[in-house]
Batch of 3 targets.
Target 1
Amino acid sequence: MAEAMHPTEHPATEENEGVLFPITRGEFFLRGARGGAAVMLGAGLSGAFAGGASADPLPNLDLAYARLLVGVELLTADFYARAVAAGLSRRRVVGYLRRALIHEQKHYDSVAGIIGGAGLTPATAADFDFVYPKGTFGSGTSILKLARQFETLSLGAYLGAIGGMQTAGFKQGLAQIAAAEAQHLAYFTQATGGKTFSEAFPPALSIDQVSNTMDAFTA
């Protein structure tokens, strides 16, 4: 993966039509849509972040984290949709996979609202092609193992965003989503034979750490 740049180094201008900084494959989450330019919208914030709306422009770092989280939610929602469709898990497990999918879709709506509220277009599922290790959807066991990995990634990404985003109004919404991801992780950890109370302080992940992990799942 290319070395990640600092979001504050490339402020938005009319010339780049809302794109905050150049894009590499490893920084896919930093863009609003495939191919480059973002379309200006008048959308407001939604979901858990409705209370964080502001007339002032958001810091570039906040937009970078929002785009990171949009990427995380698109990846996890895609994974859970495929996992449910595979139909290889027990009925009770499928119920949890389906519930996790619904949660991730709601989380996406919320974090995408941060980008929409800034007058930019958030990425959608049509903007990316996700790939998975061979055999991922070949058994219920492999599905559960990757679900655990993705929930570890999601929790760490949200914890990192809570510490890194500068807009205080987003903190509560981020914490609520992190709590939901922690619940998902606890279930999938137990389902794969792990210890659900192994860490008193789950680690926060940096933008680089999340990007490096996600890079393996993008074509």
Target 2
Amino acid sequence: MLAKRSSVTVADRDSGFSLIELLVTIAIIAVLAAIALPQFMAYRSHAVDAQMKEDLKSAALAMESYFSDKKIYPATVAEIVATGFNQTDGVALTIDLTTPSSYTLTAAKPSGSQASFSYDSTTGSIY
């Protein structure tokens, strides 16, 4: 009697990916992720810095607008919100009246390149 031949062909056995091919693909994806993730985190921290600086600029403008109306600088953030200042979510803003004619604003938010930025009304600079 003749033995029956298997109906499985060579093409049927080679239709999937081998374990080596899958491991190489996963390794390539891991290397690309290792390169991209730190860059993404740097972009994100720069975006947080930009948010804080923009809030400082907007708050300084609102402080000056408030001063032009009332001839005194406001002591709280709520007072400048009434003049049109829109605070960014997550950015903590504090006002420090150093003298009756000068102030310092500080904006803080975690995950920036530094913990906070400050605006000095006497110099007009953000540091």
Target 3
Amino acid sequence: MARTLIGGLVGGIIIFVLGYIFWATPLGEIPYSKATDAQNAAVQAALAQNLSQSGTGAYIIPAHQSAGGAVLYAKGPIATVHFNTSGFSPDDMSMILPGFIVALVTGLLMAFGLAAVGGGGRSFASVGRLVVCFSLAFTCWEFLGSPIFNHYGWGYWIYVFVAESVSLIAAGLVIARWFLPRGYAAAEPRTPETTGYDAPIAPVTEG
């Protein structure tokens, strides 16, 4: 229990550190398209004039529930806007603590999940494949599905897919290698010495 708990905390720290590297360093500028200062000011003014009364939220622009909106949506351009009525400094660090807590919770969930399914004498390679496959299954659907279903550009979502896949896989492999309960991810083969049986059970045959 304590070993798994420590592993979850370590995994959470790995997720947090890699998230910082991918998003809080100059690397974080890679997935974003750029507009000029004049264009930014014009779009910001339009947002303030048209969305501030509706409040913070996620908007499909133009909304297509009405007949007129559907025509505009089909005509384009379109956008999904994650809108915040309040500004904050680009160097704002208020999200560090809650983000760190979420990372730790994520690491703990991963550790206890791996402890639950990583038993039975499974080797590190076996548990490692589980980590890689489930991490990629989640990130593939969650991030590569978005540009398909919402007609977004691919650049941002490929970057997110890579960043989140690397973070989850790195954390999971560290947990699987060093922090699962002893014997859960051991690399030793299943032999009479490691299983406690004097000899392997022979298959039952007819005749």
